[in-house]
Design goal:
mainly beta; three-stranded antiparallel beta sheet; 3 strands; 66 residues
Length: 66
């Protein structure tokens, strides 16, 4: 089962929940008790067609990936 990140619309607290994809389960904020949680998109789940080295930065400028 994937891990989804949620943000509470009331207090802004972020937390993660392990749940089935496509689940419509309501989660409760562990900080304020609100059940008004919004699922956030992660960069991993949003999908990216770039290779892992595209965003690589080398502090010295002499790394083989530059």
């Amino acid at each position: 089962m994937p891990i989804f990140e949620y943000k509470c619309k009331k207090c802004g607290h972020k937390t993660e929940f392990l749940e089935k994809a496509g689940s419509d389960k309501k989660h409760i904020c562990e900080k304020c008790g609100s059940n008004d949680m919004q699922r956030l998109l992660s960069t991993f789940s949003a999908g990216s067609s770039s290779s892992s080295n595209d965003n690589y930065s080398c502090p010295t400028g002499t790394c083989p990936f530059n």
